[in-house]
Design brief:
The structure is a homodimer of 95-residue chains. Chain A is of the alpha+beta class. Helix content of chain A is 28%, strand content 44%. Chains A, B: Keywords: Monooxygenase, Oxidoreductase.
């Protein structure tokens, strides 16, 4: 499996708007086993996205899906930056 | 929902052993919607655990479950430390 853990920063005061955009059009993403969009409970502008995919190729392919492209386009103006980006190899748990 | 994103460090050279212990006895954890155990792809000693629970209370209750207590006891000697611990509020995605 292939995993990602990333933290992005919303433009000041616009996190809820960004969270709504990110979670509105999740739709079908082949090979996606987990895709969690979450607000940081302590940092008012931080959003965490944690992902598990069957393979890195599945993740790459998802970025070309029309609904994912549309979401990225809508979200981009509300993203102030990216704090951390970790690549992982999920091994187990409740997935 | 209640979420956690944490990074722990395995004792040097013993990450695979620790990963095996952590993922061996997952069992039933009421209220657990996602519990991903993953190796950091670039840092040889780092393990990431990302969790989504129906509530913070469900997460707290899980720590008293016998199989969770047993896992913690087995894992503790192989844990060198904890790097990061983020509390989140999951809002959507593929969970």
């Amino acid at each position: 499996m292939f995993g990602l853990i990333g933290c992005m920063r919303a433009a000041e005061g616009r996190r809820d708007e960004l969270l709504a955009i990110l979670s509105a059009q999740i739709g079908e993403m082949p090979g996606c086993k987990s895709y969690v969009i979450a607000a940081d409970a302590r940092d008012a502008d931080a959003i965490w996205i944690t992902e598990v995919w069957d393979s890195e190729a599945d993740h790459k392919a998802s970025l070309a899906l029309p609904h994912v492209q549309a979401t990225i386009a809508m979200a981009r103006p509300l993203i102030a930056g990216f704090d951390s980006h970790v690549i992982t190899r999920p091994v187990g748990g409740v997935i």
